[in-house]
Amino acid sequence: MQNFAIRKHSQILYFDIRDEQWPLVYDDKYNVSVLGLEKLHIFDAKKWGNIIQHLLRAKLITRDCLVHPNEAKKEDLLVVHTKKYLQSLKWSPRVAVIAEVPAVACLPNILVQYAYLKPMRLQTGGSVLAGKLALERGWAINVGGGFHHCSSDRGGGFCPYADITLLVRFLVDNEMIQNAMIVDLDAHQGNGYQRDFLGVPEVYIMDMYNKHIYPKDKEAKRAIRRKVELGHLVEDSEYLLKLHKHLKAALDDFKPDILVYNAGTDVLDSDPLGHLSITEEGIIQRDQFVFEQCKKRKIPIVMLTSGGYLRKTAKIIADSIINLESKGLIGSKVTDLDE
C-alpha cells in the first residue's frame, strides 16, 4: 500500500486461538457503565453483552467458544491516531462531545477513561484481532467495534477510536494483505475511515447510507468508490435490490484480500437516528447476502456490529448470526478459502 510506510507492530493485539474456538471476538468489559449516565444516551450501552446472552440462550455457542481480545494501548493507537487527538481524550468535555452525553463533561477524566474509553479501546483491540482471524478462518465477527465516524485526528458520533482504519493498517503493515474493501451498511456515512483512506487506491470503499442524516461529510465522500445514497424511510425491497446490485458490481470491480463489513443495524424501522424502514428480516437477509458473496468469491470477511440504537437490536444481531450459522456461512470449523 504505497501511501503507508510498512512497519511491524507490537503483537499484543494479535494472537492465535484454539481450533475449537470460533473467531467470535467479545469480552464482558465491552459494555459501558458510567455511574448510570449511559442511560441518558439513546444507545444501548449493554448491547454487546445482550447479543452474547441471546446466542448463549439459543445454545449456538458456549462461553468457551469466545475469543477475548486485548485492549489497544497507546502505541497501538498511534499507528493511526495523532498524539494531539489522543491527548484530547484526557479532557472530559471533549469526550462528552464524542460520546454525546453532556454530563460526562463534569466527570473526573480518570473515571471517563475507565468506564467509557477503556471498553472502547478493548473493542478496538477486538476489531484488530478479528481482521487477523478472518484471514485464518475465512470469517470473523467482532461483537462490537465499527466506530466508523472516527478518523486519525477526530472522533464523533459515539466513535472515539478509528478501529476500522487500525484493522486495515495492522494487516497491511504486517504484510498480511495488500488491499481491502470496506462495505459499510450502517445508516450513517462512514466518514472517519473515509478521511483516513482518501487517496489510497488499495482500499475500496462502498457505503450505502441515508444521505439526509449525520454526518453529511462532503470531503470524506471523495474516498467512496461506490456511493449508494438513500432517502428517508427506504424499505426492504428497494434496500436489498440496491445492495445486491451494488455489492456485486463492487466485487466485480475490485478483488480484495479481505472485506471489512460494517454491519450497523440502525437501518431498522423505528430507529430514531437512522430514519430508514428496514425490517428485522431485511437485516438478516442483508447480512446473509454479504456473507454469501464473500464465500462464493473466496474472500475473507470480518464483521463489526457498529450502530444500532434500539433495545431490540441485540436480538436481531444474534438472530442474524444464528441464521449465518444455519446457512453454513460461519461455524466452528475453519473455512477453507482454497477449496
UniProtKB/TrEMBL annotation:
It comes from the Eukaryota. It is an enzyme of class 3 (hydrolase). One of its GO terms (cellular component) is histone deacetylase complex. It comes from Papilio xuthus (Asian swallowtail butterfly). InterPro entries: HDAC_classIV (IPR044150), HDACs (IPR000286), His_deacetylse_dom (IPR023801), His_deacetylse_dom_sf (IPR037138), Ureohydrolase_dom_sf (IPR023696). Pfam families: Hist_deacetyl. The keyword Transcription regulation applies. Its main location: nucleus. Interacts with HDAC6. Its EC number is 3.5.1.98. Gene3D superfamilies: Histone deacetylase domain. It catalyses: N(6)-acetyl-L-lysyl-[histone] + H2O = L-lysyl-[histone] + acetate. Keywords: Chromatin regulator, Hydrolase, Nucleus, Repressor, Transcription, Transcription regulation. Signal peptide: none annotated. The keyword Hydrolase applies. This is Histone deacetylase 11. Residues 41-319 form the Histone deacetylase domain. GO terms for biological process: epigenetic regulation of gene expression. One of its GO terms (molecular function) is histone deacetylase activity, hydrolytic mechanism. Responsible for the deacetylation of lysine residues on the N-terminal part of the core histones (H2A, H2B, H3 and H4). Histone deacetylation gives a tag for epigenetic repression and plays an important role in transcriptional regulation, cell cycle progression and developmental events. Histone deacetylases act via the formation of large multiprotein complexes. It is found in: Nucleus. Belongs to the histone deacetylase family.
